[in-house]
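Before drawing any conclusions, I looked closely at one protein's amino acid sequence and its backbone structure tokens, quoted below without any editing.
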Amino acid sequence: MADPERIALFIDGANLYATAKSLGFDIDYKRLLREFQAKGRLIRAFYYTALIEDQEYSSIRPLIDWLDYNGYAVVTKPTKEFVDSLGRRKVKGNMDIELAVDAMEMAEHIDHMVLFSGDGDFRSLVEAVQRKGVRVSVISTITTQPPMIADELRRQADEFVDLIHLVGKIGRDPGERAERMQRFQERRPLSPVTPGGPDDDHEA
């Protein structure tokens, strides 16, 4: 009997959030973990996001804490918030380098890399990991206009999976959000993270 495939997940938090939002659903991170645990031996699930400096409370903090306690390796770094020339609020900083370094280090220990991102900057990383004998799947979507995935990244991947086909497997029940929000309102100002994972209705 063949050994189970060794899998590692690399989640570009901001990119996955934007992709799921464009498709009109929320990610259930507990279900996401279970989905890939069932496919083989899940070695590690990385989640990358930048956090704004000098912000007393970040809306993403409950999600980060929940992921940290529930099987994800969360990688964060401080970033800067600024206003551009048109008066739009922008966040400077991304996690591409951190993700790439971890992926190259993990390549020796896995058979299958699953990248949740559509960022074309990862094409060279995917190629480098493939040269080490690792199969690479990329999860994003082409159902939006324009597509959320860069064409060059989709072409480089061994397998492209459209996120819309995973809604039934890793999506959160829409009715659950209404219940969670109601419970959240009822228990304010004290609002500990719930066991099922926080509501992720914010940019990750």
Q: What stands out?
A: The beta strands are 6-12, 41-52, 73-83, 89-92, 112-116, 135-140, 159-162. The mean pLDDT is 87. The CA atoms of residues 140 and 163 lie 5 Å apart.
